[in-house]
Amino acid sequence: MKPFFQAADAHQTIELASLGISTRVLLPAAATGGDLVLFEETTAPGAGPPLHIHNQQAEFFRVIEGEYEFMIGEQRFLAGPGDTAFVPAGLPHAFWNRGTSPGRLLFGLTPAAEGEAFFSELGKFLPEDGPPDVAAINQAFAGRFEIVGPPLAVLRGGSQT
């Protein structure tokens, strides 16, 4: 591996608008030889991803600003600035922004696998005018990623935004 630096204004942004999520790639998979990929996410109020599993990747989070709720396995956690969470590979998880303003968090996946390319590809399955086609997503990412339930926001009073 070689040292990596990228100015803030050069970070790639991936929009997952139907989920209320905008993600900036802070550390691309290629920069770490596929060991890690790191993102900064802005989550709209009441929004978040569906309950899902990364079958071969662990995921970690650090809340920067806002009020989030995480579901990791059967456990639920309220989280605010500075709080962290870790999700082992194969464990269902989701989160949502419980606040009334956009929230921000850092998250990373290890190993990186497809890294940021995964989120770009996932975006192709998320129509702006309706819910995602879960069956198509699960088929396209079989063995790597699986949606196993609705967004935590829906279960806890938010929206699918």
Outline the structure in words.
The chain is mostly beta strands. It has one domain (8-155): Sandwich (Jelly Rolls). The chain is built from three helices and eleven strands, in the order E-E-E-E-E-E-E-E-E-E-H-H-E-H. The chain has a six-stranded antiparallel beta sheet with strand order 1-2-3-10-5-8, covered by helices on one side. Strand 1 and strand 2 form a beta hairpin.
Index terms:
161 residues; mainly beta; Jelly Rolls; six-stranded antiparallel beta sheet; three-stranded antiparallel beta sheet; 3 helices; 11 strands; globular
Low-pLDDT residue spans: none
Mean pLDDT across every amino acid position = 93
Q: Order of SSEs, N→C?
A: EEEEEEEEEEHHEH
CATH hierarchy class name: Mainly Beta
Annotation, overall tally of beta strands: 11
Record the strand order, biggest sheet. Answer: 1-2-3-10-5-8
Taken together, the total number of domains comes to 1
Largest sheet: 6 strands, antiparallel
Strand content: 35-45%
Indicate the CATH architecture: Sandwich
At the fourth level of CATH, the homologous superfamily is: Jelly Rolls
Shape estimate: globular
The number of helical runs is 3
- Spatial separation of the terminal alpha carbons: 39 Å
What name is given to the CATH topology? Jelly Rolls
State the helical fraction. Answer: 10-25%
